[in-house]
Amino acid sequence: MIDASAEKTFVRLKRILIIDEDNDWLAAMRSFFERNGHEASLASSYPEGYELLEAILPDLIFLDLKPGDPTGLLLYKKIKQKEEFAHIPIIVTSHNANATKLYQPYGDAAFLKKPFQLSRLMKTLRIYL
Predict the structure, then answer these.
(1) What's the predicted TM-score (pTM) here?
(2) pLDDT band (50, 70, 90) for residue 73
(3) Exposed, middle or buried by CB within 10 Å (0-12, 13-18, 19+), for 93?
C-alpha cells in the first residue's frame, strides 16, 4: 500500500532538451539539471535536436542560436508552428546579445546571453518549469 503522504510529495521529473553545438557546454548543463532532479537530453545539432524533441516531448527546450546561421531560427519556427510542440517553452541562448532580436518575430521565448549567471538560469527555470 502506498503511503498517502508520500504520494503527495511525488513530483514528476521535468524533461529538458538542450540543443547546442558545444559539447562541453552540453555536459555542464546536463550535470546541472541532473543534480537538480531533472532529466536532460542533449543534441549537438539542430536535426538531432528535432529528432529528440519528437522522441521525448520535453517540458522545456534550450536552443542555442549561432550568429549567421539561420538553421536555429528555422528550427525555432518549426517547433512553434507544430501544434503538438507549440506549448513547449523555448529558452534561446547565444553568445551574441543581438540574437534576441532575431527570434522575436517567431514568439515569446526567454533569452539568456551566454555565459549566464547561475542565478539568472535559476530565475528563468522558476518561470518556465
Answers:
(1) 0.85
(2) confident
(3) buried
